[in-house]
């Protein structure tokens, strides 16, 4: 089962550590420097691969088949402007945020410091829309939400995770204008 493979590997990899240790010990009894070099080479290659996957390309799900349910870099389109506004004005932590996603994790954790975040699924027939930040993932909901907006917004394509429908991120043009000098709002009611 491809999506379960990382979890299966974790539980079945222990014997290979013991075999690796035994192999290094066996080789060290015959050729100590060769054993140290081989062990160092294998450990360096493993560390380099782990660092590449964990630090530099954690969301590259097309190239890395074992990346599983990672949040994509689109999350920065939301968090960086919010963090910058909050740095300038701490009252931003009370900014009304409206999230229309069927699956919103890890947003509750990421936006934990913000006090006015509402999470709504497609089951919520009537949900507040007119907020400083609006996120919509389901394409059929995009038209419904846009029909309810009455102010200009900066609109950006947004995808939280692989496997989720791509949607839109709306940032209130008046509130976020200082962060985007010269940018014209993409959405007008």
For this entry, give a set of tags:
189 residues, alpha/beta, 7 helices, 13% strand, elongated
In short:
By secondary structure, this protein is α/β, with parallel strands linked by helices. The chain has seven helices and five strands.
Topology:
Elements: H1 5-12, H2 14-30, H3 32-56, H4 75-88, E1 97-100, H5 107-110, E2 117-120, E3 133-136, H6 139-148, E4 153-158, E5 167-172, H7 173-176
Parallel strand pairs: 1-2, 1-3
Antiparallel strand pairs: 3-5, 4-5
Helix pairs in contact: 2-3
3D architecture notes:
The chain has about 190 residues and is α/β, with parallel strands linked by helices. Helices cover about 45% and strands about 15% of the residues. The protein contains 7 helices and 5 strands, in the order H-H-H-H-E-H-E-E-H-E-E-H. The protein has a 5-stranded mixed sheet. Helix 2 packs antiparallel against helix 3 (about 30-55). The radius of gyration is 24 Å and the shape is elongated.
């Amino acid at each position: 089962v491809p999506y379960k493979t990382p979890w299966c590997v974790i539980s079945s990899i222990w014997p290979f550590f013991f075999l690796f240790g035994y192999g290094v010990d066996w080789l060290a009894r015959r050729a100590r420097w060769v054993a140290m070099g081989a062990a160092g080479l294998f450990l360096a290659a493993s560390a380099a691969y782990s660092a590449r996957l964990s630090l530099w390309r954690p969301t590259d799900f097309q190239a890395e088949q074992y990346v599983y349910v990672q949040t994509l870099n689109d999350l920065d389109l939301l968090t960086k402007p919010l963090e910058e506004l909050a740095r300038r004005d701490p009252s931003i932590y009370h900014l009304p945020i409206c999230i229309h996603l069927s699956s919103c994790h890890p947003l509750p954790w990421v936006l934990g410091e913000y006090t006015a975040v509402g999470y709504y699924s497609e089951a919520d027939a009537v949900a507040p829309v007119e907020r400083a930040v609006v996120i919509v993932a389901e394409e059929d909901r995009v038209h419904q939400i846009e029909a309810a907006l009455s102010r200009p917004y900066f609109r950006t394509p947004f995808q939280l995770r692989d496997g989720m429908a791509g949607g839109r991120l709306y940032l209130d043009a008046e509130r976020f204008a200082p962060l985007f000098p010269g940018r014209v709002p993409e959405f007008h009611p």
